[in-house]
Amino acid sequence: MFVNVGHEHAVQSSRILSVSPATGAPIKRLIHAAEDKGTVIDATNGKRTRTVVVLDTGHVMLSSLTPTKLAERLNATIPRQTSENAL
Asked: Domain residues of the chain, as ranges?
């Protein structure tokens, strides 16, 4: 399943390792290191970066959505386990 990260950009939900706010020095260092390596995917369309998504491919995706909104969208794509299909 894919999750919309804003401005009609989508990423496969199974590839997402973490969703973090774009504040704080460690995250900013992560962004700068990814820029140096050429592994940044900017999905902000010129808007302010609010969320940083780290992918299992080593890419760092920047989104203008809030971390809460992105997490809600991500949770909506994950199938829920019910008592009927639990072992």
From this structure: 2-77
